[in-house]
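LOG
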Amino acid sequence: MNLQHVRAIARKEWWHLFRDARSLALLILMPSMLLFLFGYAIRLDIVEAPIGILQESHDAQSRELAAAFDASRAFDVVRYYPSRQSLGDAIVQGDIWAGLVIPHDFIRDIKRGKASLQFIVDGVDANTARLLLNYSQALISDHLLQQGLRPPIRIEDRLWFNEAKQSRIAIVPGVIAIVMAVIGALMTSLTIAREIEQGNLVMLRTTPLTRGEFLVGKMTPYFFIGLADLAVAASAAVLIFDVPLRGSVFGLSLVSALFLLVVMLQGAVVSISAGNQLLASQIAMVSTFLPAFLLSGFVFAIENMPKVLQYVTYIVPARYYVSLSKVIFLKGISPFVVWTEVIALLVILLLLIGITFARARKLGLLS
């Protein structure tokens, strides 16, 4: 491979980027926008969920239980309802997400060992309903234990790697994978399609430029832009979202560079196959964003998916990078310890190199 040829193609691509200020701004600003949108918009915990309380029992202990819900960070008691009918109507109309009913003689029944509370939840959103139930059960159990109304037996839980129990700490490292997947594939999906669309390849065939030199030269500027985007995203994760980076910066950079090469080659395959920029950008977004979002374990646990989809996730590169990113950020583990994910990315990288050159040869891309 002639490095002078690669340098010439890379220089040409840099000049094109600098002349097209909108594309350059998109490549720089989009990662930050995606990171903030996903980091702040996606929450898997409950904060100030609107609930109502029907307090049929008016003794001091019942009032303290209601006050415990009101003081909780997870719940926001918007109203105390006078009847079961009004509480039910509020849930039906969507004014509140759940309602707590403290029945008559609640404390007396507890002492007899047969008391019950009713917690009515709007189940339209099944995940939110499950979280509300779990939070309410934990709050009620803790409150009753503090009041000495149950035998003093409790389980002391310890949550490792996310002691604050904040969902964004688990989500943001995965968001970096989504950002890099979209940006990396989108960047390279446009560059080769642009040359095909403008007919520049006809002139390039008259030069001694080879396929490898052309592809490496085209991808080099975007590779460095992708690493810059990674630096911005990782810095925002640590400084703005308070995500701890317990592992090494070198290890994170190494696996990120590998993943970036993989998604860039995905974009190159799309670019060569599509032949025009509009189609290439659409295919790149669909083939990278949706699998990375839905099938990488970023939000939805892979183990909870149907078996068929679990097997499909093995061909999604983001699956491996999400796993690597989380263990480096939160557990401080070296990527060489979880070497199977690194090997998987390397295998996918080699396969994509072969597919890229095969497509380029089939379409007569250079010599």
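LOG (cont.) second protein
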Amino acid sequence: MTSSSYTLLFGLTADPIHKGHEQVVLNSFTYAKEHKIDVEQFLLVPTYQPNLVANKRQPRTPFKHRFQMCEMVAEHIRKKLNYPVYVTDIEKKLFELNGIKSYSYDTLQATLTENKLFVLSADHFAGRWPKFRKWYKWQQLVKENGLLIHQRPGHDVNLNFIKQLKAINQNVFVVSDLPQVDISSTKLRSQLKNILPLAQNAISKDVLKYIRQNKLYSKK
């Protein structure tokens, strides 16, 4: 790595944001410290109208709520650990400007900072034919930004594919041997809908309170 400072960007639906997401943020800073990567800022990027692959669904909760939940988590991490974690509404602004769903490549381009690392989970890089190969301008995305890939339970990265990515940009890193939180957002929404106790352990207290106050996942 060079001595430059990096902006890390983590795209997420945040429907809702949970402790699995929080662990990715914490692991990013731990990995950066261990590998002498200077992090200028870490940006949570809640999706607005994303172009999706692999049968993913559009977020069901309004953007304003998902953004606010991200804000609560970012503020908590800043206060507790003094990490420079913030939230950006860049995807909402892009949609309002262009009126079309955004690709990650477009979002990264529109984020006007240099030396970016895109934070992703290992499931996009697992298997014989990694899903990341279906992404819009994926090679250009890697070349211009670099990647910080986080291990995820049940998803082992394709090491040959990682080598291909490193040939495009040496700033492709795989975070391993750090704590992981195995949470499914789909199951979590079901837990919240049925007011089951598991959700209480998977979401921060402030976010859980916000969810209940706004009845975000209540039975209709």
